[in-house]
Amino acid sequence: MMIEKGLNPDEEEKKYRKPQSMSIKLGLIVLGLGIGLVIIAILANFGALGRSNATPMAILALCGGAALTFANYIESRRN
């Protein structure tokens, strides 16, 4: 029926995958930021952060970026 209308079934299927991939990315970002917070808490407990306010933000940015990179890797393997 889709072919008779001139629609490509593969393209229609990809339209419905977007919300799922968005939830995967969001979930991995939250997980990455949570891991970053745990790392910051451990370093703060041992006094390894020092007086720099940039270190915790850098750790969060690195963990969030790593989570986004991993999410894109998973998405590219799915397609």
Outline the structure in words:
Helix 2 (18-45) packs antiparallel against helix 3 (54-78). The chain is rod-shaped. The chain is mainly α. The protein is built from 3 helices and no strands. It starts with 8 loop residues before the first helix and ends with a helix. It has helices at 9-15, 18-45, 54-78. 6% of the residues are buried.
Instruction: Tell me the major beta sheet.
Output: none
Average pLDDT over all residues = 83
Number of strands: 0
Structural class given helices, strands, pairing? mainly alpha
Proportion of residues in β-strands:
under 5%
Q: Cα distance, first to last residue?
A: 24 Å
How does the overall form come out from the CA principal axes? Answer: rod-shaped
Please write out the topology.
Layout: H1 9-15, H2 18-45, H3 54-78
Q: Summarize this, please?
A:
It is built from three helices and no strands.
Features:
mainly alpha, rod-shaped, 79 residues
